[in-house]
What we know:
Blueprint: H1 12-21, E1 29-37, E2 43-52, E3 61-71, H2 75-90, H3 98-121, E4 128-137, E5 140-146, E6 150-155, E7 160-162, H4 173-181, E8 185-192, E9 195-203, E10 213-214, E11 227-232, E12 238-243, H5 245-248, H6 253-259, H7 265-277, E13 286-294, H8 313-318, H9 328-332, E14 340-345, H10 350-353, E15 382-383, E16 401-402, H11 404-413, H12 422-427, E17 443-446, E18 452-455, H13 463-471
Antiparallel strand pairs: 1-13, 2-3, 3-4, 4-5, 4-10, 5-11, 6-7, 6-12, 8-9, 11-14, 12-13, 15-16, 17-18
Helix pairs in contact: 2-3
Amino acid sequence: MSTRSEHRAVQLSVLLDRESASEKISGPDLLYGEANQSKKGEDFTLIKTDQPRVVGEAGSSFSVFAIFDGHNGSLAATYSREHLLDNILAAIPPDLDRDDWVAALPRALVAGFVKTDKDFLEMGKTSGTTVTFVIIEGWIITAASVGDSRCFFESAEGDIYYLSADHRLECNEEERIRITSRGGDVGRLNTGGGAEIGPLRCWPGGLCLSRSIGDMDTGPLIVPVPHVKQVKMSTAGGRLIISSDGVWDALSAEKAFECCRGMPPEAAAAQIVKEAIEPKGIRDDTTCIVIDILPREKPAPNLPPPKKQTKGVLKSVFKKKTSEPTSQTCRDYVEPDMVEEIYEEESAMLSERLDTKYPLCNMFRLFTCAICQVDMKPGEGISIHAESPNPGNSRSWDGPFLCSSCQEKKETMEGKRGNPFLLVGFISMEIQKPENLYANHPFEVSDEDGFTSKLSHKTTKNWDGLFELLMF
Length: 472
């Protein structure tokens, strides 16, 4: 399987120039199918093909394929399914050409995910969801993910590429370090007597994921900032599989591709779901989308009428053929028969993710919040670089800028202030102040749904203030 370290990122403008310089390259045909076996009814999909990138402009289209795997109810999944795409597109400046539009996608995906999370939390609902969100524009795949649904691409050459990240704390050491370095607690469920069971979880809240949309009752270090990867396919195309964790808990990527080899997408998706649930039965919602990305069938060219044969015809018939291109343009822009990585980033810091490495025209709308797109008066915006620990060459007055509400969201995710939504989760708990509050050993608090949080002196140093708030 191919990983990031094995491929050198290629500049986006170079790859797009190859397409524009060769008349032989056209966009792919997309064939897709989906299948689902439901246990809880919390998995949802979004499929939108041939969406206009520029209204009224022929040939400027993209397609979206996404899976939303909800937990603690389906509200976060259904809300994200309804609003996430609109929030992503709203974060892309208008009037961009195709090159800049594709380059703007990674930044817009981050803004769209964070805005969707922020808006959903303001509804006061405790549900959460994982998201794997894929945009295909021409031969470019851009995938954004939070949680443990995953996306794999198998090229026509047989190589498998991991396009998403797995944010389960059990298998993601970088995310464990991020949470614990900011004061979070990562551990297994304590059943009493020192026994610990189940996967690693983040406390309070007990979520086994480090990133999601929603989850109001978890700590502020569970963030909605997605891993984003962007790749350029070869024009031979390939197959894309997007599935919820119900599939990947049972199958490896190699097994998923192998079990449906040669099947059309609809049958392939059904076969993958069948293979996943067959050994132990359905234990979780299990959803799969399969997309075949294929070169378009080209009509036969209109050939000119044959010329009268001359005595040189035999020479041309037996002349040694060459595969080398004849023009300088073809030599410069010969299409690589491989998948090339354009972009990959997973940092949870918005100051790094909302910045851009591409010289996009009108990329920073200085009087518009980079997340929620609300208009601001001059001087109202707060730079994403303000108080940044690694500002680089950026200054605190450089854009892009956030409104005060989104700045609070940014500081909460970075552990610089408490989660304003977390208290609501505590209010619904039936709890008693423990007498051993300031003892060295931890104690536990269980909420009305049976989830247990491990608390200690470090994590409950403001317990007295919390009880005053609850009593009030």
